[in-house]
Each structure stands twice: as C-alpha cells, then as structure tokens.
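Sample 3 of the quickstart, ligand adenosine monophosphate:
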Amino acid sequence: MTTTVLPTDPPPQLHQAVAEAVRLLQQGEVVALPTETVYGLAADALNPAAVAKIFAAKERPTFDPLIVHLPDKKLLDTVAEVPPEIQKAVIQLIERFWPGPLTLILPKKACVPDLVTAGLPTVAVRVSANPVFKRVIQALGRPLAAPSANRFGSISPTSAGAVVAELDGRIPLIVDGGACMHGLESTILKVEAATPKNLLTILRPGPITVEDLKVYGRVQRVTRSVVDEATEAPGQLASHYAPRTPLRLLAKPSDFTPEPGKRYALMSFRGEEKDGYLGLTDWAQVLVLSPGSGKLPEAAVRFFYVLRELDKLGVDEIIAEPMLEHGMGTAMMDKLRRAAVKP
Ligand code: AMP
Ligand code: MG
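Result:
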C-alpha cells in the first residue's frame, strides 16, 4: 500500500486533506490524524471491520482497548451511559476540559463494538481540540476510534514524519497538521461517586494534571504492577513507549559511571552544566527537552521527538535525567520508567 501524506496549509490544501480523510473513513479505511496530544490512527468507531484495520496496522493486541473520539461533547450519551450518581461531576469535567486532552472511562452503550473496548463494559471517550481533527470528525459526523499512530509498544508520534517512520506502507493516508500542541497522550480518568468528595482515579497521567483535577474531587493515581494491569487499565503495560536502544533513568548524576568502550546519549531536562549530568562522560549526543528554562509543558512537546532522535543514533544506551514529578513531569517520568523496563 502507498501511504499519502497531505498537507493542511494553506487553506485550500486543508479542505482537500479533510475531504480525502472523510472519504476514506466513510469507506471503512484508517487515516492518521493530528490531535493536540499525539497523532492518532483513526477509523469509524462503530464499524468493527474498520476498527480491525487499526489493530492490524499497529500490530496492537486486541486486549488493548481504544479511545473513542466524539465530534462534540453533546454526543457523549450516544456511546456512553453516565451513571446518575456521577452525572454532575462528569458534566463539570467535560465543561471544563472538553475539547481537550482528558479521556473519561464510562459504562459503554451497546452500539460500541466489543473490539473497541476489548470486551470491557466501559468505553474511553474524549473530544479533541485539534482544528484539523475537529474538521474531519465533524464532517464525518460519527465517533472515531483513534489510538496513537505508532506500532504497538513504540514511541508515540508527535509529527507527520514520525507517523511515516512508524506506519509507512501500512495505511493509505496521513494528514499533516504540524507538531502536536501537548506532545503527550491524554490523561485517562475514572470517576466514582464518594462522600464527601468524588473519587477521581488517574489511570494514565497526561497533560491534565492532578493540580488541574483536584477541585473536582479527591484525586488518586494508580501505579500498576504488571500483574493487575489487565483489569484496571489494560494496555498500560509496564514496558511501553520504548525506544529500541536501552534506556536508563537516573535519580542523580552520581548514579552513572560510563563503561569503557560504550557510547551513550543524554536526554537532558534543561541542559545546564550545574545540574551535573553534562560532564559525566563524552556523550555521543545531548538533546535537551526544555533548553535553559526547564519548563515542563515545553519539555512535554519535545519529549517523544527527542526520544525518537536519540533512538536513531545507535548508541549503547540512552541516559535520561529525572524531572520534577509534578504537572506534566508526572506523565514524562511515568513514560521514562516504562521505557526503562526490560520487556
Ligand atoms: P492509546 O489510544 O494508544 O493512547 O491508548 C488507549 C489506552 O486507553 C489503552 O491502552 C488503555 O490503557 C486505555 N483505555 C481504553 N479504554 C479503556 C477502558 N474501557 N478502561 C480502561 N482503560 C481504557
Ligand atoms: Mg498508544
């Protein structure tokens, strides 16, 4: 199969790309689309044959459920049943965060194929704020299943070029909407009624942080072991987001002693000498997530890009500096820990 990449700038190109994406999706094909988090591989969520093509292109195991995107938050009840006891909380959350990078886990309606939810009684839903994605899904007028547009277990793509590297020849179309605004996958949240405050469980940390959510209830984070992950958050495998090159996450500079003859590359947080990592060895390459300032949202935008670039070098090991574990640092540290796990 030949993979076409269509630009979305200037506007006549955008119209053409959207029309082509809609045409293919209506035919039950898969299309890679930009979202504000990472690029997604989209298919008609209510068409099991189309959804099956997502699993095939990604080589994704069918026990790993997909996120369903809606054209509009008003359509939530077409795919999900909102239990009365959490209705108020859900309305507050979607009014505040949709469209945006928050995914909610809710009981599913019968129209959602079992393949989408991996047989679970719940469905993961969100509404994307990306202008290109919005145009496509609103023109289609149907929910889209759209997991990240990478091969299973690999690094999520945050540019059309990264999607080409992952899926060239496996899908008919990639719509190039430029770099993704957040650069990290959506926050996945489960909402449960409780007194005095509802319980909000973060199943996957992402751009919507504990700090953002805590006014809406008591927030807890699930850190799963390999054993129980199949139940609560399938697909959040202990080993995931992995570059091919072995990766080591340091806690402090003194934890690293270079071995003679080995080549190392450094993923640095802000690239400052005084942090103590730059001088540890003669690095084959140093890439900095947030040069100088060490801003977590900026680091998040570059995170998967930097990981992908360092993976191309063919060094013996990628060494990652730790980040502060608040805000988007929580999600990046989570991903670095998963990337560091040996499969
Ligand atoms: P992706 O679309 O590749 O970013 O990943 C989707 C992830 O959402 C899956 O790997 C699951 O961890 C999570 N997910 C999807 N549906 C459900 C569900 N019904 N319950 C819990 N987690 C889910
Ligand atoms: Mg993914």
